[in-house]
Write a structure and sequence with these properties.
Chain lengths: ~280, ~80
């Protein structure tokens, strides 16, 4: 087939089926759906739970979060099965992650009572990391590439930040701390709305950052693969799509670890700011 | 394709390019001094790299906000 015909102009020849729609196919792959595609089994339609007026659909991303939870539980069980003072095998790896979160994230960013927040930060870190990593496996999906999931994680961070401040300074004291002390009174009408907006935008930025970072890599990889079907040339796959998709995949691996780290780091930073506000 | 839709695609394409310009400028401005710094003082290169990667991820986050907006424009 000549390039002019293949470029998508003019009518599609008979028997070719529907013309390839790159955008639609990409968003089918990264979006959420009620069906699970499994190897050897085919498509599995997931049930919808009906609780009174609410319809809770179990979707692909929900299943992926369950898979992530199962993996985390299995890892933790394996790591703590034969505990010893001198760690061996998988216990070493898990201890490394735990100590990293405690020393590099919690203790560095939270000035007082840092160890109190380690369980939350550790769960967030490992859950995001496993969810992100699942996206690199065939037949799996990235649960953190769904804005609902990241919004849930950001809501948890928001609640933790507020709870930390309220526990440390009391309810009134925490909200008084939002505005720095010693600000002239005439500035307060500007400062209070700005600081209140900052309260909301911090978790919102956490939510969108994780979502956009996770979705961007997949979009780029799928767009590169789509080039083969758009141009309808096999050599494009060998020369362009596969090498570049491989390159983007390795960058994606870096981004996976980085985003889990950034999310947890910023969460601990916000907790630290609310526990110990700058005076 | 009608006028509004093609204008939206036009805007999305230009917006994606502008966002990349901003992100690249930001990343370049912080990567160059970081490299200079780690060349002058190799013993703190690791620390510089860590803080540089964090800043790069934050810059990239803002760039990706813009790209999400562009995708939303193109889908409309």
């Amino acid at each position: 087939m000549s390039v002019e015909q293949a470029a998508g102009h003019g009518p599609v020849e008979q028997g070719a089926g529907e013309p390839f729609n790159a955008g639609e196919s990409i968003f089918h792959h990264i979006g959420d759906s009620g069906t699970l595609e499994l190897p050897f089994v085919g498509e599995v339609h997931l049930p919808v739970l009906r609780l009174g007026p609410y319809h809770l659909a179990i979707t692909k991303h929900v299943v992926m979060m369950w898979v992530a939870c199962a993996i985390i539980l299995a890892l933790m069980w394996l790591a703590t099965r034969r505990r010893s003072l001198v760690p061996k095998g998988i216990q070493t790896a898990m201890e490394m992650i735990v100590v990293f979160v405690r020393d590099e994230l919690a203790r560095k960013n939270i000035p007082q009572h840092a160890d109190r927040f380690v369980p939350y930060l550790l769960s967030t870190f490992i859950f995001i990391l496993i969810c992100n990593l699942l996206g690199m496996f065939p037949y799996a999906a990235t649960a953190t590439g769904n804005i609902g999931v990241t919004a849930g994680l950001a809501t948890m961070a928001f609640i933790m930040v507020q709870m930390a401040g309220i526990r440390e300074h009391g309810f009134a004291g925490h909200f008084k701390n939002l505005v720095p002390h010693g600000v002239p009174v005439w500035l307060l009408p500007i400062m209070i709305p700005v600081e209140f907006l900052g309260l909301i935008t911090k978790p919102f930025a956490l939510c969108v950052r994780l979502f956009a970072n996770m979705i961007a890599g997949h979009v780029v990889i799928l767009a590169l693969i789509s080039l083969v079907f758009i141009l309808k040339q096999a050599w494009v796959g060998f020369v362009l799509s596969v090498p570049f998709a491989l390159f983007i995949s390795s960058i994606e691996l870096l981004v996976i670890f980085l985003q889990a780290y950034i999310f947890t780091m910023l969460a601990s930073l916000f907790i630290g700011m609310s526990v110990h506000p700058s005076h | 394709m009608e006028m509004g839709s093609s204008l939206a695609h036009f805007a999305a394409g230009i917006g994606a390019g502008l966002a990349v310009i901003g992100g690249a400028a930001g990343n370049g401005r912080q990567a160059a001094p970081a490299m200079e710094g780690s060349a002058r003082q190799p013993q703190v290169a690791g620390e510089i790299r860590t803080t540089m990667i964090i800043a790069a991820a934050l810059i990239e986050g803002v760039t990706l906000f813009a790209e999400v907006v562009c995708i939303l424009l193109a889908l409309k």
